[in-house]
Amino acid sequence: MSSFEEAETEETVTCLHLTFYHPGQAEKMMFRCLDFCQRQQLRADDTAKFGRDSSLCGYSLVDTRVSRIQFSLQFYRKLHTSEYAFEIKNLSKKTKLTVNQTELGYLNKIDLPWRCIICFGDYQILAEIQEGEAMDYFETHLHLAEAPILQERCLPSLQPVPENGVSPSFPLSQGKSPTEIDENEM
C-alpha cells in the first residue's frame, strides 16, 4: 500500500465567512485589528466574540460606539443530527442587533441562517456558512466590502405588482400616484 492509501481521511472544516462594511471605514479604520488575509481556526468550544475590548474579544473593532462585547457566535451541533450551526447572541446592553431584520435585544440569541446580514449601528456584516464535517474546530474567514452590503446584494424590489401580474412600463416615482380602479369598470 502506498502512503496515499494509508493517509488519514481529510475532514472538511465548517467555515464562517464574514464580510464587513461601515460607511466610515476608509477614514476611521475601525477594522484595522481584524485579519483579512487568512482563515482563523477556533476550537469548537471557543466563542467568537466581537467588540471594542481586545482583551475580551478575538475580533476587535476600533470604534468607541461599539460595545466592549457587541455580540458572540457559538459553534454547535444540532440535537439528533450530524449538522453543525452557529448561534448569535447580542451582548450589548445599549445597541440592538438585527439578523435579517430579526431584532435581538440584550442577551437574545438565535440560530444564524446559512446566509444573512447582521447589522448594528452603521455596521453591516454579511455572514455565510460553508458547511464542513470537522467537529473539533471551525474556521472564520474575514472579508472587507467596498460598497454597502444591503444595497450590493440585490434585495428584492419593493415595487408593487398589480393583480393582473403586469408591471407598469413607467416608474411610479414620476409624480403620478397610483389610482384605484373598480374591477367592474375594466
UniProtKB/TrEMBL annotation:
A Gene Ontology biological process term: innate immune response
Domain of life: Eukaryota
Keyword Magnesium assigned: no
Region annotation (Disordered) ranges: 162-186
Alphabetically ordered keywords of this record: Cytoplasm, Immunity, Innate immunity
Pfam assignment, any one: FHA
Signal peptide limits: none
Keyword field contains Nucleus: no
Compartment annotation: Cytoplasm
GO cellular component, one term: cytoplasm
Compositional bias (Polar residues): 166-177
UniProt domain FHA: residue ranges: 49-121
Family designation: Belongs to the TIFA family.
Protein name: TRAF-interacting protein with FHA domain-containing protein A
Gene: Tifa
